[in-house]
Structures are given as structure tokens and as C-alpha cells.
């Protein structure tokens, strides 16, 4: 994990130019940025840690609101520094898991939705250069959903002996990566 963090650059998935487009390119895109991958896994992991109804709500809200962020990016609506928002998403979501924070349902949904805007915006600003923006969008939404499911899968160990420690430890590692991304974004 540490070697991947050292070699990774923040927001590597958000290159902004020359996207080939299409379903396959969109599907592989979220895996090209460690920051995006960690945030997506963290959404599923936090949802699994919190249980019902958030195990379902968080992974549904994120891609839905990410699409809104994408539309804002396509439209060129100005936002605060997007890479800062993405770095904060990794840090905050990891910290929520590590700290076993159990906010009310509405607040957990709001936190995830705010960060989804930034992730979607980063993708939206890239879409106009893609040859097939619809296929590309479908691909990255599908990959995002699979990363959420992976996080849920890891989070399911919480019910096993020592599982809560494993899940919270994973959250701490995610938060540490988020701190590093934040340093790079500033």
C-alpha cells in the first residue's frame, strides 16, 4: 500500500484532455487515479460500517450526484478547487470510518453527495474531449459502482471477530492517503 501511495500522483485520473471515449475507456478511467479509487471504496466501506439504510443509500447517492457534478463540469460552472475537494473526500471519508463516526442518515448522505459533486465535476470537464461521452460516462459510473461494492465487501468483515478493527484500520489508511493527496493539492 505504501509503495503505491508513494508512486501515485494525486488526481492522476483527471487529465482533462485527449480522452478516447467509449465504454471501455470510461470503465478503466476510475482505476487510473488512486484518489478516485480510494474515495469510491471508502463510500462502500463507510456504508457497510454504518449498516442499513446507508449500506444502500451511499453507493446510490454517490453516482447519482456525481452525474450532476459531471453536468456542472460540462457546463463550465465554476467550483472551488476540484482537486482539493477530491483530496478532502479521501481524507474525510477515511476519517469517518477510522473514527467510527455514525452521523444521522441525512448528514452521511449530504457528506457523500458534496464529495460526489467534485468527483463528477472532474469527469465532466473531461467529457467534451471524449469521442463517445455517453459510453464513457456509462463506463465510469459502472466502475464507480463496482468500487463501491468492493468497499462494501471489505466492510462486511466488521461482523467477524476483530473485523471492526480491520475496517477502522482500513479507514485510517485511507485517511492517511487523503492527507497526502491534500498536501499535493495545496
Automatic annotation (TrEMBL):
Record's keyword annotation contains Transmembrane helix: yes
Pfam families tied to this protein: HupE_UreJ (PF04955)
Keyword entries, A-Z: Membrane, Transmembrane, Transmembrane helix
Record-annotated membrane-spanning stretches: 31-49, 56-75, 81-98, 105-122, 134-153, 165-183
Name of protein: Urease accessory protein
Upper classification of the organism: Bacteria, Pseudomonadati, Pseudomonadota, Alphaproteobacteria, Sphingomonadales
Amino acid at each position: 500500500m505504501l509503495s503505491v501511495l508513494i508512486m501515485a500522483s494525486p488526481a492522476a485520473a483527471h487529465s482533462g484532455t485527449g480522452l478516447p471515449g467509449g465504454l471501455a475507456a470510461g470503465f478503466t478511467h476510475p482505476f487510473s487515479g488512486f484518489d478516485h479509487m480510494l474515495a469510491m471504496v471508502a463510500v462502500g466501506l463507510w456504508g457497510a460500517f454504518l449498516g442499513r439504510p446507508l449500506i444502500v443509500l451511499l453507493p446510490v447517492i454517490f453516482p447519482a450526484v456525481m452525474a450532476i457534478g459531471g453536468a456542472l463540469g460540462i457546463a463550465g460552472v465554476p467550483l472551488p478547487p476540484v482537486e482539493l475537494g477530491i483530496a478532502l473526500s479521501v481524507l474525510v471519508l477515511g476519517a469517518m470510518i477510522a473514527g467510527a463516526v455514525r452521523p444521522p442518515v441525512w448528514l452521511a448522505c449530504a457528506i457523500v453527495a458534496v464529495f460526489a459533486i467534485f468527483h463528477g465535476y472532474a469527469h465532466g470537464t473531461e467529457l467534451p474531449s471524449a469521442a463517445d461521452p455517453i459510453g464513457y460516462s456509462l463506463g465510469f459510473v459502472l466502475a464507480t459502482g463496482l468500487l463501491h461494492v468492493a468497499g462494501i465487501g471489505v466492510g462486511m468483515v466488521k461482523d467477524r471477530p476483530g473485523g471492526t478493527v480491520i475496517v477502522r484500520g482500513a479507514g485510517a489508511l485511507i485517511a492517511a492517503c487523503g492527507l497526502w493527496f491534500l498536501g499535493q493539492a495545496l
